[in-house]
Design goal:
It is a single chain. This protein is an all-alpha fold. The protein has helices at residues 14-46, 86-97, 106-134, 142-171, 175-189, 198-226, 234-251, 253-271, 281-292, 301-339, and strands spanning 54-58, 63-67. The radius of gyration is 22 Å and the shape is globular. The model is unreliable at 1-8 (pLDDT under 50).
């Protein structure tokens, strides 16, 4: 199991870890996406999105930039509706548009979100196991470093793909035109242009990941000790995930505010086919403080908490359940083979 020694030497394979994380990713997105769909529809009602305007769409696994296209009145985020609040929006969308509308825009984002989550969770478990074997006197710190490294790896792999997805959506290019566009950008601005916007992402996600995994493993161990059990139950994983996710979300909220603003800024420059230099992360933070005061760095506190806590809880409890299932299966097979 994740960063915990078991009584048996039987372990689950990386492929089984991937299947477990994939199941958790899909289940998380199915539960969390409706919250963000309703939030975006309420935003569009208050202030309609003009052409080239960007907004951040979250499927519970990762954030994606969506670019509004002109004349596309059939786009899910432009659907008409008079909502008087979150609950009213849920009811009216289900009644007049069908329950499937609560998952509008989900399939295209899963193409990258699921692989990113699989890479992240599998790398974390593998790294954590290796580090615990090496850091014999500091095993409690292993989740901290494993979580940070795993997040850097997954974000670095997925960042160029997210950039390509945004370009395809905003400029309606063919794949050949897109290839020429990317080649031109690399020639003029270097390979780093493919990872534009990665800095603010890492600034938020790496501290979040390090704190999340460290606190999750600690909370899980304490709860197991409290209830005198050797392996965590689904409820223990769920509670530990929600608490550790909430804490990490609160601490990294200023970085989340900066990341969101930078993402939208870069997306809108891209949609207008302008140079994507934008402002630096530090300057963006300074601008927020000047315009809105220090409280501006903590804007969206409650919505982020409501979104992150259940997402972390559902993802980790499903992941742990999947690993427990495969572990028992492997154990049974091992005992069966040992009898022969």
């Amino acid at each position: 199991m994740s960063c915990q020694s078991t009584a048996s030497n039987v372990r689950i394979t990386p492929v089984q870890q991937m299947v477990s994380s994939c199941s958790g990713a899909i289940l998380t997105s199915l539960f969390v996406t409706p919250l963000d769909v309703v939030k975006i529809r309420l935003q569009a009602q208050r202030k309609p999105f003009p052409k080239g305007k960007c907004f951040v769409y979250c499927n519970g696994l990762m954030d994606h930039i969506c670019v509004c296209m002109n004349g596309n009145s059939r786009a899910w985020y432009k659907a008409p509706g008079r909502f008087n609040g979150t609950v009213d929006a849920f009811i009216k969308i289900m009644r007049y548009e069908g329950i499937k509308s609560l998952w509008s825009g989900l399939p295209p984002t899963l193409v990258m979100a699921v692989p990113a989550t699989v890479i992240y969770f599998t790398c974390y478990d593998q790294l954590c196991m290796m580090m615990k074997a090496q850091m014999t006197n500091h095993t409690q710190e292993a989740p901290l470093f494993a979580g940070a490294i795993a997040r850097v790896g997954s974000a670095t792999v997925i960042s160029p793909l997210e950039l390509i997805r945004t370009k395809l959506q905003s400029q309606k290019q063919s794949y050949r035109q897109l290839t020429d566009c990317i080649r031109s950008a690399v020639e003029t601005e270097g390979w780093w242009s493919l990872w534009r916007g990665l800095g603010p992402t890492l600034l938020r996600d790496v501290p979040f990941s390090a704190m999340y995994w460290y606190n999750y493993e600690r909370a899980k161990a304490l709860l197991c000790q409290h209830y005198n059990i050797s392996e965590p139950t689904i409820s223990i994983s769920f509670i530990s995930g929600a608490l550790s996710g909430s804490f990490a979300a609160i601490v990294t909220l200023p970085f989340d505010v900066v990341k969101t603003r930078r993402q939208v800024e870069l997306g809108e420059l891209q949609a207008k086919n302008l140079s994507c230099q934008g402002s630096s992360t530090f300057r963006c933070m300074q601008k927020i403080v000047v315009e809105q005061g220090l409280s501006g760095l903590f804007a969206g506190f409650l919505p982020r908490l409501i979104k992150v806590a259940p997402a972390c809880a559902i993802m980790i409890s499903t992941y742990e359940f999947g690993k427990a299932f495969f572990h028992k299966r492997n154990q049974a097979r091992s005992l069966q083979y040992s009898e022969y």
